[in-house]
């Protein structure tokens, strides 16, 4: 069976540029990418999310002021299936400042957005045409942790729903907690779960969170101490039980580095985490009990690898090297999990990569 042709969407920091979201056609059979242009006029569309129908794309606008209020924005786009062109539908306030991550629930009716600056989470309804309505719910976090520079208050850094669409998990870097909410997919409401959170080590700084394809395990990458924490997941009550915390850096590495993004290969055998500073992708094998074993670090051949993504086949990885203005394309050895650099192409200040199969509806 031939590998699919995909559209790759790359969110960026604009830094005064007009171009925001860059679009590529990716041939997963040949491993080649073709630039298709970029959206214009949107400030800092850093993180992206795809609707389950693959017809719509949502982007944060990572700013501190929207409509004269201390808030960022979320933008809705329609995806032209035959060309990959993005057509803006509308924007809504993220309610909090500095939105940095968002996701779409499994029903395709709600966008959940994490506001890093103000340490809050909002839920925005999705209309039938893919556009967004004003927030249906908002949750403000409170508290602090041990790092006075980075954890003086709450900093919600990602929001992810579990495979059953029943619970929402918010990694809050400022609180050293993965906050847990029951999610009402009928009304678009968040209610604190019991337990209300899973703690990580003080000063760890949880950032991005992901579930294993099997649904029994979950993982958070911790920005400030360059670790990944593995959890066992109880899907009935939404509880996380810590199994292990492991470094993403080589033993003895003492220079400044920060963890950023975490993803699992489609087959569920390998986990990857990005290191900004060490400028590498950490590779781990996943055991049957969910624990991780280190398999080394692959260089990204760029500076400050922010987020990265595996294409739908699991055979390729795109790495967004923010400070060297380049996306690195790697092949993935599905047997060993190792990465080999294949190509690199220019994208200014890339942050996030998302894929959609071309022609899909």
From TrEMBL:
<dbReference type="GO" id="GO:0017057">
    <property type="term" value="F:6-phosphogluconolactonase activity"/>
</dbReference>
<comment type="similarity">
    <text>Belongs to the cycloisomerase 2 family.</text>
</comment>
<dbReference type="InterPro" id="IPR011048">
    <property type="entry name" value="Haem_d1_sf"/>
</dbReference>
<dbReference type="InterPro" id="IPR050282">
    <property type="entry name" value="Cycloisomerase_2"/>
</dbReference>
<dbReference type="InterPro" id="IPR015943">
    <property type="entry name" value="WD40/YVTN_repeat-like_dom_sf"/>
</dbReference>
<dbReference type="InterPro" id="IPR019405">
    <property type="entry name" value="Lactonase_7-beta_prop"/>
</dbReference>
<protein>
    <recommendedName>
        <fullName>6-phosphogluconolactonase</fullName>
    </recommendedName>
</protein>
<dbReference type="GO" id="GO:0005829">
    <property type="term" value="C:cytosol"/>
</dbReference>
<dbReference type="Pfam" id="PF10282">
    <property type="entry name" value="Lactonase"/>
</dbReference>
